[in-house]
Amino acid sequence: MNKGLRIIDVGEVIVELKKSASCSPFKKIVIKCPSRLDAACTDPGKLYSVSPKDNIYPTGQINFCANICKTISVEPRDDDEIFITGNYSRKSLVRHAAILMRKALGVSTGFSINVETDLDLRHCGLGSSASAIQGVGVAINELYGKPIERMELIRYLAGNHAEEIDGDDSHLVYVQSVGGSGVCGHFSGGLIIITGRATPIVKVNLPEELKIVFGVPNEYLHPDANTLIADEIDASENFEKASIDFSREIAYRLLNEAIPELLDGNYKPMKDFIFDYRWDMGSIKNCAYAYPKIVELAEKMRPLRDDKDIEFIFLSTAGPGFCIVTKNTEKARSVFESLDMKVYVADIHNDKYKIIKLIK
Predict the structure, then answer these.
(1) Where do the domains of the chain lie, and which CATH numbers do they carry?
(2) pTM of the model
(3) b/e burial code for range 240-264 (CB count within 10 A of at least 16 → b)
(4) pLDDT the model gives residue 356
């Protein structure tokens, strides 16, 4: 990653893909896409080491898929206008995805797009920007009969990922993407591990009785991406140092302890790895650029590492949202509320995106 702000036009293509649509679009499609929560990276230093082939950042992720969904409907228009409605507030991201898809498919069709989101929170760890871009891309691809294969689509949209600038609907700030939101939309599994160029290597269904409890500090102001990426660039050397210091331990523990036990149904080694990665390998401290108080909040949650009611606990992405996966939602809610955090509860999403309606 070139460590400087890069401002692009809405719809600007950084990495090209050409998959010309061979048929006329359907009349309407409605899909439902889940959210992802990023529990840990497999190599944090790769956040700034791009794959030149497709602009993917091969940092890897351990993702939990949450039933916090966006319902996206797309209808082709008789003109070339892109008309956007719905309660999702960042319309520039929706427009960006639509233009990217028009360019990839070689069409000039206009679209009427409606995006309704279960939870309109930005920049707190839910992958809300990427799920919007990936979701709109999925819907338009389906509208034309899926000419783009799913990994091609994930990588194309992740390679052209960008996020909003408050007060400017014509430009976006380029933000590196790992591809987790796309993978969680296209592949089944409540816990999905990706490495390399957004490649899913482990996909595990989690019990339905487990719930995702998500806490966000009440005083967090949800700044725009332009502000946050500038702060992240200043902290980038910390992530690279963590990679140098801990990459061998991360690889060994994942491959020889956490993943084999996870596949056998024992979650504790994965819980311990995620906790140690976040609390003791510098991750939470490195992510404090977004909200400095997360370090203090995290220390107050340290006793939960060995709490048997807590299956997993982690800061999601750079936070400041923390996540607890548990059957005991009241205990998790009490933890977050005691720390002056707003609490949200969601089901695990073991499925991929769903087509709700398709009118031919």
Answers:
(1) 7-205+350-359 (3.30.230.10), 211-347 (3.30.70.890)
(2) 0.94
(3) bebbeebbeebeebbeebbbebbee
(4) 97
